[in-house]
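Quick entry between incubations.
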Amino acid sequence: MSNLEQTLSIIKPDAVERNLDNEIKDMFKNNGFKIVKEKKIQIEKFEAEKFYKVHETKPFYNDLCTYLSSGPIVVMILEKENAILANRDLMGATNPKDATDGTIRKKYGISIDKNSVHGSDSYENSKIEIDFFFKD
Ligand code: UDP
Ligand code: MG
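Done. Structure below.
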């Protein structure tokens, strides 16, 4: 049965700063993702706080929000069969040290905080996150 999904992907400041956005976009395309919409933006800290609200009780929350708002990011809607899980697989583990070969975080991630990409983790969150950046 077909299950075409959309998910939200973010190329984070550490990767955009190193001009890796085109290489990372190529990885998505080469793995069968269609980039349906994309924009390069910089967000304010209060917006990062809203986006990452699920993590507000975590010790890394403040640094994470400072970081995500520290420079340009590329936000994309990716489309593919089972896109949400497929994107999580292609991203690799949160900590690049634990990510397996062939994943974006293994290839480009610097550290657990500067791990180059974000991807929605569930169907429900994909809807919320796509709306967050692309509701117009
Ligand atoms: N993060 C961090 N320190 C940690 C765990 C997470 O800085 O100990 C950051 C990291 O950038 C991660 C983001 O917080 O991508 C969101 O964490 P989550 O557990 O949702 O990981 P993800 O879904 O991005 O793999
Ligand atoms: Mg997450």
